Amino acid sequence: MMKMIPFSRPDVGDAEAEAVSEAIHSLWITTGPKVRELEKRLACFVTGDEGCERAVCLNSATAAEEMLLRILGVGPGDEVIVPAYTYTATVSAVVHCGATPVMLDIRREGSPLTRAPEMDYDRLADAVTERTKAVIAVDIGGLVCDYERLFDVAESTRHLFRPMTGQGDVLSSLGERIQKTLGRVAVLADCAHSLGGSRCVRGKWLGCGNLADFSTFSFHAVKNFTTAEGGAALWRSIPGIPDEEIRKMLQLLSLHGQDRSALSRMQDNSWEYDIIGPWYKCNMTDLSAAMGLRQLDRYPEMIRRRRELIARYDRAMDEIGIWHVRHETEDMKSSAHLYMTRLPGRTEAERNAVISAMAERGVMANVHFKPLPMMTAYRRINVI
């Protein structure tokens, strides 16, 4: 039989199965101690700080992005700059908040260093208006964006920034304080592909999740690191705003605005709780977190192996003259999520024929991504 190389088979095994079984037999299968442990370990993995508490696990990266935008106070009348070349989740979270996505095209040849299809930073400043509250960069394929360029633009457009005025409730009050403290467009990182990636900033290597003001990760089944379904929100400390306040607000937003979880009420033997706001339901379960904890045990070796394979692919592609992204430079190390190539000068039909021919030989390939302006839901949005 011909060996098949699937496009997105999850890297899970007995360790994950045993961890999930253990969680089931504990009889605590919703949000509980496993989720809390994963949050702490993820924050440490990203920042290198054992005591870091700047992570909250949720049921998807999409939910994580939406909750962060709501904490930022983003809503109707606001604009959020997003790349036109990304998956719908990056933009749909903006739409869910009632804000207007402003799509920025990518550079035609990609990043000069990595060839990654990043947004055109040279045109970013022109897209910022008095309505702009945030810009979201996407680390496609695990290749880490140039966040220094993004912060340079955010700083250079401070004179345009107009912080919101809160409505007196706890959520909008937090958004107002964050916006006034930043005093500029917030920089968000869509790190759905890039857990474990890093970039050198002013001589210091920083992991994805520690490069932007706010970051989101996906743990979907096709990602390097998976909890089957799941995601996380991380952030950098903001002067004057306690990390615990942001963490607590994310937890409130993700569980109906309920100020005490079922686990805390059971531990205190008290039923009393309050609903702070009529909010959302997007918490992670302990079953998912149990899988994630075992994945995190294995993750450094998983990335090492992926990078080893990429080096072999690079040698082969260079030998036959195939264009491909560069997963490592002097200033960037990707998470090695996707091996992306292009066929310059070839038609769409010829590209699809290559994909079909590879499938016939047992190698599954895909297209990442179909640009959003080509999708029915986004065809009316102008691209800058």
Task: Describe the overall structure.
This protein is α/β, with parallel strands linked by helices and 384 residues long. 37% of the residues lie in helices and 13% in strands. The protein has eleven helices and twelve strands. It has helices at residues 14-26, 33-47, 61-71, 88-96, 124-127, 147-156, 170-182, 243-254, 262-268, 286-320, 348-360, and strands at residues 55-58, 79-83, 100-104, 132-138, 186-190, 198-201, 204-207, 214-218, 231-235, 323-324, 332-333, 341-342. The strands form three sheets. It has a seven-stranded mixed beta sheet, sandwiched between helices. The longest helix has 35 residues, at 286-320. The mean pLDDT is 94.
List the keywords.
384 residues; 11 helices; seven-stranded mixed beta sheet; 12 strands; single chain; three-stranded antiparallel beta sheet
What's the helix-strand series?
HHEHEHEHEHHEEEEEHHHEEEH
Poorly predicted tracts of residues: none
Tell me roughly what share of residues is in helical segments: 25-40%
State the secondary-structure class.
Answer: alpha/beta
> Biggest β-sheet, characterized?
7 strands, mixed
Tell how many strands the DSSP assignment holds: 12
* Widest sheet: strand ordering: 1-9-8-5-4-2-3
SSE blueprint and pairings:
Layout: H1 14-26, H2 33-47, E1 55-58, H3 61-71, E2 79-83, H4 88-96, E3 100-104, H5 124-127, E4 132-138, H6 147-156, H7 170-182, E5 186-190, E6 198-201, E7 204-207, E8 214-218, E9 231-235, H8 243-254, H9 262-268, H10 286-320, E10 323-324, E11 332-333, E12 341-342, H11 348-360
